[in-house]
Amino acid sequence: MIADHILRAAGIENFDDTCEPGAAHALAIKDGTIIAVGGDEILDHLHGHDTVLHEFPGATITPGLTDAHAHPVWGSIEIGGGLDLGSARTLDEACAVIEQRLHRLPEGAWITGFNLDINVFGGDPTGAVFEERFPGALISLMTRDAHALVVSPAVVDGIGLTGNETFDDASQVVVGADGKPAGFIVELQAMALVLDHYPDIPVVTAAGYVAHQLRLLAATGLTGLHALDFTDPSEAVYREIEATGELPVRVRCSPLVPADSGRGVWETIAAQQSLAGRRWSVEGVKFMLDGTADNGSAWFEHPDVFGQNQKPLWKDVGAYRDAVRFFTERGIPTATHAIGDQAVRFALDVIEEVGRPEAGPHRIEHIESIPDDLLDRFAALGVVASLQPVHGTRMTNPDQSDNWSHRIGPERVAHGWRTRDLIDHGAVVALGSDWPIGLGDPRVALADAQLRRPVDAPAATPVQPDQRITAREAYAGMTRATAFAAGAQHRLGRIAPGYLADLTVFADNPLALSPEQQAMNPVLATVVDGEVLLHTLNEAPTK
Predict the structure, then answer these.
(1) CATH class entry, domain 5-63+498-534
(2) Considering only CA atoms, which of 413, 372, 375 is closest in space to residue 395?
């Protein structure tokens, strides 16, 4: 057999104990699959006239990094057409960003944005300030957790929001002391009332946004994403990209099962499992059992300091149980967004009742704060813990002055972001970013996971430093663990014959570098499905 491609470097690293230093430094690929791993003898036996030899002197080849939790379509569209408020630390700074955009738009145009830090309001979020500074402007800003919007009075009036709207889930149009909408729109069904009025974006334009952002993500070392959504225009965007080229990363999509939906909706989503392109596919489903602690919509056993964060997003949790059973019986794995301790406990209880589906394990996403008694249950039930390191390091403050910490209190803060504990209790911990909510560069996220602080802030105090993990554990969380989470551990996540050729080529072995050095470790190439994509610039995704 003659290889299509042969890659040769200084070494191969699987982030486990299968590769001794110097034992292997070359691999051969045929039809998108690894057919041999070893030394220079590969060149003698598998190199033919049409074989392409890729030399990476001094570099290390690793399994391709996969982000366990991202939102590539709506995230790219937000970045392409909206304002990034991530750098705004005060309300004045946020308004300055809005003002710059306002001057460039025609009168009556929407100003949309994302990544708004709810802490800038210093109290209850309200859109009234936008009317004071920008009279009549249509402004809608998504908060950093993507579970709420802050909108101007012009948007409230234009859409006709009253504050009396009712929803199937725990969404709400928040009202002020005067009983009128305050411009704070919480959770998905309420947000949809506003998002449905956003200007339409042509599929070709949206596809351009997505392709661009995925190329940037690939340049940071990613070869795959688990997209925890599949809303319109996802399918059209992926097909548009593949009509003229290839996705630079492999995308596994899991559609959202709406809260309190019924069997008809579940059957429609189950039928989507057959949808796929060359590098994207629909596999699994996502549930949102609760909301976010910042908005008071997470489900904890005990209420927060405002008497909130004590209800599930599903008003009928029995329907959630029935839905998880419905998909499990059809062999479809589930991923449940569960932030509060009671949401995590209930999700684990349901999974214990329904068992494991054929296609792969169930997952629980986020798991922001849990007590000791839940740690062992992940391994016991075979449930993957899907965590986002940058949420803990970049959305909370060590002095607990942030909204999340203040709301849930010091005891629950001390049980937050328990990466180390979950690994020590035998859980499979898959790591991701929640991009664009979190930073998309995996090198940064993995460095943060080791430091428990932003890697680019050496003076910062670590958040729960006892939850640090090693470099090997961190990189395993985006290779072997993400493959297991997708039920693909026998074809992804390792460099071995018979595995798909999804690879990342680093200038240096991450395990030989400090976390600070890892965050800057150049990515020389990524390989997806056997196709080699060389990277000369390592710019981070926009966020």
Answers:
(1) mainly beta
(2) 413
